[in-house]
Design brief:
The protein is mainly alpha-helical. Helices cover 81% and strands 0% of the residues. It has helices at residues 3-11, 15-42, 45-72. Helix 2 (15-42) runs antiparallel to helix 3. The N and C termini lie far apart (36 Å).
Length: 80
């Protein structure tokens, strides 16, 4: 494995990687909110259920990423 590949593999476990994952997951929430709004407007129950399940997945993903961020920041006084 090259040095670049090893560095890219460990990026996800770095603070920067976790912040990027948080941002992209939060950005996905915008799409789910739009989907839910459209489903309510069109009275489409199936799409509304899909949006609710997607929102639950996003909340779970954000909670996992937040936990990972706290683990990475255990030595950081500001993060607690």
């Amino acid at each position: 494995m090259s040095a670049v590949a090893k560095k890219a593999k460990n990026f996800k476990k770095s603070k920067t990687g976790v912040y990027m994952s948080l941002a992209s997951t939060a950005f996905g929430a915008i799409g789910v909110a739009k989907q839910a709004k459209l489903a309510r407007h069109e009275h489409d129950t199936l799409r509304l259920v899909d949006a609710a399940v997607s929102a639950a997945a996003i909340v779970t993903g954000l909670a996992i990423l937040y936990r990972e961020l706290k683990r990475l920041g255990d030595d950081d006084v500001l993060l607690g």
